[in-house]
Each structure stands twice: as C-alpha cells, then as structure tokens.
C-alpha cells in the first residue's frame, strides 16, 4: 500500500468522527439571529448528495430544502436526485430555470455569441440566483458543495456553484467524498458515476481538466503525482486564485 492508499484507509477508520465534526460545523453556521435552515442545489452528483446528507443529519429534514433544477440536465440525474431524497429523507423541490435561460441567452448573444463553456457557466449562475431567491425569503443559508479537489484547481463557476454562504465539504478530496458518501447512505449509483458538471453534452470533469481526480488527489494528499500532469494542475491552481479570494477593492 502506498501513502495515498494508506491515507484513505486512515480516513475510512475515522469517518464517523469526521462526519460528526462536519455536522457540528453546520449547526454552528445556522445558529445565528434570523437563520432557519439551509438550501442546497441537488444535481444528482456526489458533491451535492454528501452536502445535503450532512445538512439533514445536522438540522433534520424540516430545515433543509434540496432544489432540483432540471433545465438541460439528463434523466439519469433526475432519477438519482429522487433516489437521494428518499434515501436521506430530503425535502426536494423542483425549479425549472429553462424558460429564464432561454429568454436570457438571446439577449446576451445580441451583444456577443457565447461558447459552450460560457453558456454552461450562465446556467450555473442562474442556479445560484434561484437558490438565493429561496434562501433570502426564508432566512436560510445556501450551502456550497465544492470539494477540496475542485477548489484547488478552480473547477467551479465564479458566481455560480462557487458562490454560497458556507461549505461543509471544503476540506475533503474527491476520494474522501466517496468514503463519506457511503457512510451517509448516499445511493451507490451516485457514488460511482463519472463526475461531470454537465455544462455541455458528454462533458466529464476529468476529460475537461486533462488529468484524473486520482492525479489531483495524490498531489493534494501526498505532494506527489505523475510528473506530466503536475504542471497543468499547478497552472490551473495559479490562474484560479481569484476564485478563492474576496474581490480586490480600494
Ligand atoms: N485574474 C483574475 N482576477 C479576477 N477575476 C478573474 C480573473 N481571471 C478571470 N476572472 C473572472 O472570472 C471569470 C471566469 O471564471 P468562471 O466564470 O468561473 O469561468 P471558467 O473558470 O472559465 O469556467 C468554469 C469552469 O468550472 C467548471 N465547472 C463549473 C461548474 C461546476 C463544476 C463542477 O464540476 O462542480 C465545474 C466548468 O466546466 C469550467 O471548466 C472571467 O470571466 C472573469 O470575470
Ligand atoms: N440540475 C441541477 N439542479 C440543482 N443544482 C444543480 C444542478 N446542477 C448543478 N447543481 C449545483 O451545482 C453544483 C455543482 O454541479 P456539478 O454537477 O458540477 O457537481 P455535483 O453534481 O455535485 O458533483 P460532481 O462534480 O460529482 O458531478 C452541484 O453540487 C449542485 O449544488
């Protein structure tokens, strides 16, 4: 067993303790004047599943709203979102952002045509607007679902899934997320499907990033990875610094 594998075995051994630490953190975040609960965008993927499951453990089903936004998503993700809701007793509501996106896109494109990535980012920012619409009105917080691996390379949409009020999974790599997901009873179909932001058809995280989550997580956990991908990972880390900081101001 190498150092990376040993680390994962160790994490597995202490996963129950880690889960309780994250539950306590969520309770602390929501323990403020005028705050009632949490809103989470549910995509059918593992990151939002783990985040929602932790929030339900911390606050109970009554105080957590999962929001499924079907526009341009695949049926498999809808099915997984429903399976998740049943497995973890999550209140799941649906908001169709399709008509809003369809109206907004031509208005923006009258100024400048958008490529597929920018269109995907625009959908992600409409999802953020939706989650804040619900949270604002109820005195709830929006939970961030970005894991440590994604945050390191800036693999999130600025002002979209990269914008929220607190993050209960920020220190977990993708590999640790899978271990915690099993502990939380997240359905296996969600844990094993290829990670994708689904910003366009056929997109997978690993194909777009140009390296695998194993390459990235090995670097984060052991400081070592395949030499041919290290440079790209560090390049993406450097150019995404602005996403991990508050905006500069004077
Ligand atoms: N140096 C700098 N200082 C300050 N701001 C800077 C900047 N460089 C760009 N910016 C700003 O940031 C913008 C670019 O950032 P952004 O809009 O995020 O766009 P960008 O980083 O180009 O794209 C987002 C990436 O995240 C991926 N993603 C999105 C959503 C979910 C997931 C997931 O798997 O969970 C992944 C997506 O596939 C794509 O690769 C620029 O338009 C500019 O406004
Ligand atoms: N169709 C959707 N409905 C609701 N929320 C969504 C939807 N798509 C994305 N989101 C929100 O944006 C976040 C990032 O999306 P993305 O699909 O990249 O990640 P994920 O599904 O959680 O995990 P993975 O990276 O493993 O696919 C999600 O965690 C979720 O909170």
Automatic annotation (TrEMBL):
<dbReference type="InterPro" id="IPR014729">
    <property type="entry name" value="Rossmann-like_a/b/a_fold"/>
</dbReference>
<dbReference type="InterPro" id="IPR022310">
    <property type="entry name" value="NAD/GMP_synthase"/>
</dbReference>
<feature type="binding site" description="in other chain">
    <location>
        <position position="158"/>
    </location>
    <ligand>
        <name>deamido-NAD(+)</name>
    </ligand>
</feature>
<comment type="subunit">
    <text>Homodimer.</text>
</comment>
<keyword id="KW-0479">Metal-binding</keyword>
<dbReference type="GO" id="GO:0005737">
    <property type="term" value="C:cytoplasm"/>
</dbReference>
<comment type="function">
    <text>Catalyzes the ATP-dependent amidation of deamido-NAD to form NAD. Uses ammonia as a nitrogen source.</text>
</comment>
<feature type="binding site">
    <location>
        <position position="196"/>
    </location>
    <ligand>
        <name>ATP</name>
    </ligand>
</feature>
<feature type="binding site" description="in other chain">
    <location>
        <position position="125"/>
    </location>
    <ligand>
        <name>deamido-NAD(+)</name>
    </ligand>
</feature>
<dbReference type="InterPro" id="IPR022926">
    <property type="entry name" value="NH(3)-dep_NAD(+)_synth"/>
</dbReference>
<feature type="binding site" description="in other chain">
    <location>
        <begin position="242"/>
        <end position="243"/>
    </location>
    <ligand>
        <name>deamido-NAD(+)</name>
    </ligand>
</feature>
<keyword id="KW-0520">NAD</keyword>
<keyword id="KW-0436">Ligase</keyword>
<comment type="pathway">
    <text>Cofactor biosynthesis; NAD(+) biosynthesis; NAD(+) from deamido-NAD(+) (ammonia route): step 1/1.</text>
</comment>
<dbReference type="InterPro" id="IPR003694">
    <property type="entry name" value="NAD_synthase"/>
</dbReference>
<feature type="binding site">
    <location>
        <position position="174"/>
    </location>
    <ligand>
        <name>ATP</name>
    </ligand>
</feature>
<dbReference type="GO" id="GO:0008795">
    <property type="term" value="F:NAD+ synthase activity"/>
</dbReference>
<feature type="binding site">
    <location>
        <position position="145"/>
    </location>
    <ligand>
        <name>ATP</name>
    </ligand>
</feature>
<feature type="binding site">
    <location>
        <position position="150"/>
    </location>
    <ligand>
        <name>Mg(2+)</name>
    </ligand>
</feature>
<feature type="binding site">
    <location>
        <begin position="41"/>
        <end position="48"/>
    </location>
    <ligand>
        <name>ATP</name>
    </ligand>
</feature>
<dbReference type="GO" id="GO:0009435">
    <property type="term" value="P:NAD+ biosynthetic process"/>
</dbReference>
<keyword id="KW-0067">ATP-binding</keyword>
<protein>
    <recommendedName>
        <fullName>NH(3)-dependent NAD(+) synthetase</fullName>
        <ecNumber>6.3.1.5</ecNumber>
    </recommendedName>
</protein>
<dbReference type="Pfam" id="PF02540">
    <property type="entry name" value="NAD_synthase"/>
</dbReference>
<dbReference type="GO" id="GO:0046872">
    <property type="term" value="F:metal ion binding"/>
</dbReference>
<dbReference type="GO" id="GO:0004359">
    <property type="term" value="F:glutaminase activity"/>
</dbReference>
<feature type="domain" description="NAD/GMP synthase">
    <location>
        <begin position="20"/>
        <end position="245"/>
    </location>
</feature>
<feature type="binding site">
    <location>
        <position position="165"/>
    </location>
    <ligand>
        <name>deamido-NAD(+)</name>
    </ligand>
</feature>
<feature type="binding site">
    <location>
        <position position="47"/>
    </location>
    <ligand>
        <name>Mg(2+)</name>
    </ligand>
</feature>
<keyword id="KW-0460">Magnesium</keyword>
<keyword id="KW-0547">Nucleotide-binding</keyword>
<comment type="similarity">
    <text>Belongs to the NAD synthetase family.</text>
</comment>
<dbReference type="GO" id="GO:0003952">
    <property type="term" value="F:NAD+ synthase (glutamine-hydrolyzing) activity"/>
</dbReference>
<dbReference type="GO" id="GO:0005524">
    <property type="term" value="F:ATP binding"/>
</dbReference>
């Amino acid at each position: 067993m190498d150092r990376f594998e040993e680390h994962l075995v160790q994490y597995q051994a202490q996963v129950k303790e880690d889960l309780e630490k994250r539950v306590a953190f969520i309770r602390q975040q929501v323990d403020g004047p005028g705050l009632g609960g949490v809103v989470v965008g549910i995509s059918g993927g593992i990151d939002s599943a783990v985040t929602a499951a932790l929030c339900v453990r911390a606050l109970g089903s009554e105080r957590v709203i999962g929001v499924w936004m079907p526009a341009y998503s695949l049926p498999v993700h809808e099915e997984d979102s429903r399976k998740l809701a049943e497995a973890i007793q999550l209140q799941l509501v649906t908001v169709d952002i399709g008509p809003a996106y369809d109206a907004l896109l031509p208005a923006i494109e009258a100024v400048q045509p958008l490529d597929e990535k920018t269109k995907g980012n625009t959908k992600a920012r409409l999802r953020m607007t939706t989650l804040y619409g619900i949270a604002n009105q109820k005195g709830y917080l929006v939970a961030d679902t970005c894991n440590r691996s994604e945050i390191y390379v800036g693999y999130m949409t600025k002002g979209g899934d990269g914008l929220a009020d607190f993050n209960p999974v920020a220190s977990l790599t993708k590999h640790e997320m899978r271990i915690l997901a099993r502990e939380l009873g997240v359905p296996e179909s969600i844990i094993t499907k290829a990670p994708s932001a689904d910003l366009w058809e056929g997109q997978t995280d690993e194909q777009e990033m140009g390296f695998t989550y194993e390459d990235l997580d090995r670097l984060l956990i052991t400081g070592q990875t395949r030499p041919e991908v290290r440079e790209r990972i560090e390049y993406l880390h450097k150019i995404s610094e602005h996403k991990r900081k508050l905006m500069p101001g004077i």
